[in-house]
Amino acid sequence: MDANTNLFAWCQSFSIGDEFVDAQHKHLFSILFRLHRSMDAGDSQELIEGTLNELIDYTQRHFRDEEALMERVGYPGLAEHKAQHDTLIEKVEDMMEEFMEGEPVLTIEVLIFLKEWLTTHIAQEDARIGAFIA
Ligand SMILES: [Fe+2]
Ligand SMILES: [Fe+2]
What we know:
Elements: H1 19-40, H2 45-73, H3 78-100, H4 108-133
Helix pairs in contact: 1-2, 1-4, 2-3
One fe (ii) ion binds near residues 81, 85, 121 and 126.
């Protein structure tokens, strides 16, 4: 295993203490990992496009579920949290558009940006939901 292999690995310190949310975060990391492997392997545009779509769909689903959870428990920071989700979705959709137009936007830097965003968001925002529930 080289360093890159572990770049998108889930880490126990990412846990927010909610099994359902943690499982979805793990899945997001696993899609990023597959995307990275696919890029490294020089997979076709179609194949990468499929995984990118999966990432977008799953991210949207996760955000919806997380927002529903915040609503259910009466989490006070829902609006601000949702705004962060919306901004990320917009960014990823823009990226997808450029990718479809043949722009070489999908680089390791983009994957690292997504991973950093996710890690920071989980640690600073999602963790607060976990703490609120507890
Ligand atoms: Fe979130
Ligand atoms: Fe999340």
